[in-house]
Amino acid sequence: MNIFIQKHELQAQKAAFDVEKRISEAIDTKGMAHIILATGNSQLKFLEALRKRPIVWEKVIIFHLDEYIGLDENHPASFIRYLRENIIKHINPFRFYPLEGNASNLFAVLKNYTYLLEKHPIDLACIGIGENGHLAFNDPGVANFKDPHLIKEVELDHDCRMQQYNEGWFDRLDAVPKKALTLTLPAIMKAKHISCFVPDERKAQALKKALEGAIIESCPASILREHPSVNLYLDPPSAQLLSDPFDP
């Protein structure tokens, strides 16, 4: 794991530059790149920087990590809407495969997305870490390091839902959906490389547990320490509790 610590906006530029390089390498090697993009307030600066990079987006297939169940894709908190507004409409990728949590047949959605993930092995997963240590919507309590599925339906825990409310996506906690679809931890760990962008003081405690505690499902992000290729981008506020941030 490579850990980088500098100011938020500088980190966004650094992460975007490295992601550009890895996407270009995948395109040069096999003619197409397959990537996963995350959502949330913490990813805004990174996505802004990424969409400005001179990437051949017409040769990139984009997946995303998770989506609420039962939330219309035009709702302000929809992750489909978030990705379309913050990057997809700016870049014209070869394909964007939305994860349709509002579909009437969720079994068909899970089956089709599994098929797509198997058909297009992921070169690069651009992710974040939640305040409760989650990756995607793999919260403590539902995270499974040996999950047999690539995607599944989950119940969101209170801390996760509180984070979504506090970030301003919903006007009250009761409005935050209690269920979601998420890529599983094995699905994320299958990516050839993981770029993890985690700014902000509110992520400091989760980072300390993930990097210095046990590798355990109650801190889902700790599994990243077992991946062979991870770049972790922090800013001083998010790294403030680490005892030795360059040697986790």
What keyword list fits this structure?
about 250 residues; alpha/beta; Rossmann fold; three-stranded antiparallel sheet; 8 helices; about 20% strand; globular
Concise account of the structure shown:
This protein is α/β, with parallel strands linked by helices. It has a single domain (about 1-200, about 210-235), classed as Rossmann fold.
Please report which band the strand proportion falls in: under 5%, 5-15%, 15-25%, 25-35%, 35-45% or over 45%.
Answer: 15-25%
Domain count: the total is: 1
Helix-strand topology string: EHEHEEHEHEEHEHEHEH
Architecture per CATH nomenclature, i.e. the level-2 architecture: 3-Layer(aba) Sandwich
What is the count of DSSP helices, taking H or I runs of 4+ residues? 8
The largest beta-sheet arranges its strands as 1-10-9-6-2-3-5
How far is it from the N-terminal to the C-terminal residue, by CA? 8 Å
CATH class, named: Alpha Beta
CATH topology: Rossmann fold
Coarse shape: globular
Sketch the major β-sheet. 7 strands, parallel
The unreliable regions are none
Count of beta strands: 10
Average residue-wise pLDDT: 95
Work out the radius of gyration.
17 Å
- Backbone structural class: alpha/beta
Helix content: 25-40%
What does this structure look like?
This protein is α/β, with parallel strands linked by helices and 248 residues long. It is built from eight helices and ten strands. The protein has a single domain (2-201, 212-236), classed as Rossmann fold, CATH 3.40.50. The longest helix has 23 residues, at 8-30. Strands 1-10-9-6-2-3-5 form a seven-stranded parallel β-sheet. The chain has a three-stranded antiparallel β-sheet with strand order 4-8-7. Helix 2 links the parallel strand 2 and strand 3.
